[in-house]
User: Fold tRNA N(3)-methylcytidine methyltransferase from Drosophila albomicans.
Amino acid sequence: MIDICVGHTAHAVYCIWVINLNEMEPDIITNRTKDLTADEKDKLEEQNKRLVPEFKANKLEIDAQRHWDLFYKRNETRFFKDRHWTTREFQELLADQASAATGPQEKRTLLEVGCGVGNLVFPLLEEQIKEETNAGFYFYACDFSPRAVEFVRSNSLYDTKHITAFQCDITSEQVHEHIAPESLDVCTMIFVLSAIHPDKFKAVIANLAKLLKPGGLVLFRDYGLYDMAQLRFKPGHKIAENLYMRQDGTRSYYFAEQELAQLFNDSDFEVISNNYVHRRTLNLKEGIDVPRIFLQGKFRKRIKSQ
Ligand SMILES: C[S@@+](CC[C@H](N)C(=O)[O-])C[C@H]1O[C@@H](n2cnc3c(N)ncnc32)[C@H](O)[C@@H]1O
Assistant:
């Protein structure tokens, strides 16, 4: 089971290896990121020797949608793996959990932000259809890239009885043209906020706060501070603290736990859980050790009277 990017230029070598790996140590869930070795500290220091020039960083922001759309033009539906782990990590995504909250006939509503080609929503929808349950979710799925949305719409499971996909920039007001305020039970954001410039994080979280019912949940997983991929960036790729440019023009940010908690706290959410997930995949035969650090959290929109 793999839940990291497969084939990104910045970590291409690792990604090819991961496919063949066979020994996964149990995840370590902690509120600490890794202690850097002297060598890793040097690598991070090296990155500061040549930053992405300001004009180029600004251009990356202007062209952000184009870069993601080209990414899907190149990779089509081949890049990300179906995310079958989501119900293990977030039990709120199980169909029976969903019905427990609203009653057996009423479907809950879920928005997958930055859905890509649907690797999170389709496994959930498939399960729901297999179980022939009336419970579960009505899914909304949005992405910046029109091509990604087209891939979602052309999936054989796509049916507006169950799912609506639309293109939008989640940092803008566009999402409110598609979804009514305070109508959602759950928002999922899986490796998406890291693709957005940190100056816009607040606007994204404020949008989610507007869309969710009081008590609604954000389920979050993304790159954690000092993840292997962050340490591997060479000089010329760093844009700002913990923000990097990949070879293909897309960007990735590496989140500190407290910073993420603060972001949600400031925007009317309480933190239910928020931890680093340290994952180590070993292949002794090949001599490969792939340590990854993700940040995973659940945040609940405050209920005003509380
Ligand atoms: C690393 S991919 C993850 C895709 C998907 N969530 C998954 O896990 O397979 C990041 C996604 O975020 C989308 N994205 C980037 N900026 C966005 C924005 N401002 N609004 C909506 N989606 C955005 C990209 O188009 C891309 O599909």
Remarks:
- The two ends are 40 Å apart (CA to CA).
- The chain is about 30% helix and 25% strand.
